[in-house]
Amino acid sequence: MNLLAKILLEAATNTPNDATASDGFTGILMSALPIVLVVVVFYFFLIRPQKKQQKETEQMRSSITVGDQVTTIGGIVGTVRQIKDDGELYVIETGANNDRLTIHKWAIQSKDTISE
């Protein structure tokens, strides 16, 4: 019985130290910190600028009116002559023979001139 009392007394007096719990949290924080920093860097240098560019491109495509000169993704330069299907299709006129092409809104790369 004496041996059992000594073991129980020793177990009761050896409580975990607060520094040990704090060291565990600090260790987890220090191991997760580089991952958090990489995510933040990716957001500010890759994701945010890309979303800003997409927003500007969509705004440019939505502001196209009849008479604007546009360049398609394939490099075709033409003048918008008609807008169809609620602005989703554009009929452009291009070339010396004034050939007409129907293109999708997403196929426009840039708006070169503003109609008057």
Describe the protein's architecture and organization.
By secondary structure, the protein is an alpha+beta fold. Helices cover 49% and strands 24% of the residues. The protein is built from two helices and five strands; from the N terminus they run ααβββββ. It has a five-stranded antiparallel β-sheet, covered by helices on one side. It is rod-shaped, with a radius of gyration of 33 Å.
Name the features.
116 residues, 2 domains, 5-stranded antiparallel beta sheet, 5 strands, rod-shaped
Strand order of the largest sheet: 4-3-2-1-5
Kindly name the structural category: alpha+beta
Main pleated sheet? 5 strands, antiparallel
Principal-axis shape: rod-shaped
Number of strands: 5
Helices, by number, come to 2
Q: Could you tell me the strand content as a percent range?
A: 15-25%
**Which residues sit in consecutive blocks of at least 5 with pLDDT less than 50?**
none
The H-and-E topology, N to C, reads as HHEEEEE
How many distinct domains? Answer: 2
Radius of gyration, Cα only, in angstroms? Answer: 33 Å
For the terminal residues, how far apart are their CA atoms?
103 Å
User: pLDDT average, as an integer?
Assistant: 85
The level of helicity is 40-55%
